[in-house]
Write a structure and sequence with these properties.
The chain has 22 helices and eight strands. The protein is of the alpha+beta class and 615 residues long. A hairpin with a 2-residue loop joins strand 7 and strand 8. Helix 6 crosses helix 14.
Length: 615
Amino acid sequence: MTNICIIATIIIYLVAMLLVGFAYSKSNNDSTDFYLGGRKMGPLVTAMSAEASDMSSWLLMGLPGLAYLTGIASPGWTAIGLAVGTWLNWLIVARRLRRYSANLDAITVPQFLSLRFHDQRNLLNALGAVIIIVFFIPYTASGFAACGKLFHSLFGVDYMAAMVVSACVIVGYTITGGFRAVTTTDLIQSIVMSLALVAVLVYGIGAAGGWDAVVANAQSLPGYLTMMASHNAAEGTATSYSLLDIVSTMAWGLGYFGMPHILLRFMAIEDEKKLVLSRRIASVWVIIAMTASIIIGMVGLGMTKAGALEYLSGSSSETVIVRIANLIAQHGILAAVLAGLILAGILAATMSTADSQMLAAASSVSQNILQEFGHMKLTERQSLFAARLTIICVSVVGVVLARDPNSSVFGIVSFAWAGFGGSFGAVVLCSLFWKRCNWQGALAGMLCGGLMVFVWKYIVSPLGGVFGIYGKENQEVAATSYYGLFALQHRGQESCGIAVCNDGVIAAHKDLGLVEEVFTPEVLARLGQGNMAVGHVRYGTTGVTDRNNAQPIVVNHCKGSLALVHNGNLVNSYALREELELTGSIFHSTSDTEVISYVITKERLSASSIEEAVD
């Protein structure tokens, strides 16, 4: 009966969203109506639509999950950066963008940039559209992943099936109602999200034994309730949060200046003078919502301590609100309906972002690429058909990308966020405040900013930092390795480790954090002398941020010991891992390095030397 009430509530909510789309389906007379709602949006709708589309599933899944695992530092500094970025975006960008875009009659961000810089060849139009499509697809995929996790964890529904159904609903009201439907549903969804946060918070505090019990539990965990350290759940220790960590985390707020789906809200308001009210509404809501979300993560861990909730590790921590809603549903029909609304809130967070992203991608293809860059003469009917077809294609690709149920919402969003911030952020600011900026500079900025995100993620990040030293006699190889890793710190700041070999006996130490934080004089002294050592600084490319994923990986077997450091990814890692597990290997990390070490160890058991085993 409980599941029936929850499912019924969610179905009613989804049907209501579709009805909103159908209600606005006949109000789209031209592309301006479909993409910007005819520039007739009120201040409340503009504010709440912008923030609801901004927060996405990250607010109700990624943020509380991060707080649950690591404490308040990482999500706290992120929230501060986002709150400041939100306020600054409304303060310095919104009014000028609304005024300039209306004067130029621009209905998309790439079109505004192209007209602003007098780009006769429409190169900014084309490049901007490609960037929007490339980065919005993984962003949309993160939303679909959130939907799949929701239904799979709660009802045991197939992950892929849940994603497909959710995508169909979002696509349905977006292609029918356009911008007016999207902004109206965003307003409704922001209200549902707010109710979900309040309900979960109130119930969770009671189930954890009260607010004092929640705080006491948080205070008992090293590094959990401080803004200057991060809690390591696996080791029960604290990892200091450096100035570099704080600055890089707060830098999330800089991405706002380049978010196309948020900038479109500024362009759509009916009167630029009403942006002051919109700014106040948006800033207050964002601060309250993110604070509540972080507290929910802390409350969820308190519930685990009280025995009301099982421990959630890894990406499963992102389902903490789902698990709490499931507990609420056990208290009767009305409670089950409330739980359904909470789960609808997670859907709302996902849908409010995905619909805006797909609409922005649609305008990029139809308006910027086909008509302006490709010089295709399309009627309004043909233009809207191309936009709607783009929405369907983006959703299909998004579902394919999110097919892995272990994908992290936080990780996917961070990549797309960096892409938009790097590509559009500086260019948008220059277009509004620097008269001497030209189209060549804007083109170079967009191209370099977008490419650098890929270069960093797929070329620089996998490099990490590896150091090795060998000598004929025992010496202070640990100290030498320390200085070597310190010089390589720019190659990775997530974790570091050193292994020292002394006459075949390996002593090793590794942890999350920077080299100077992890390797104190006492730690180096414990490692002792040796004739060889290996060290590593990691910038994670696969696996979660966990001490077990730090290197070196040390393996002890009947023929000796092995300490291994490695950079890069194995293309057949999953196949090798499965094969080794079937033969009895037990893995303690998600790192490819551990897979390599087990393969070498397996060969060493039948080889005459380590050199032969490696060959």
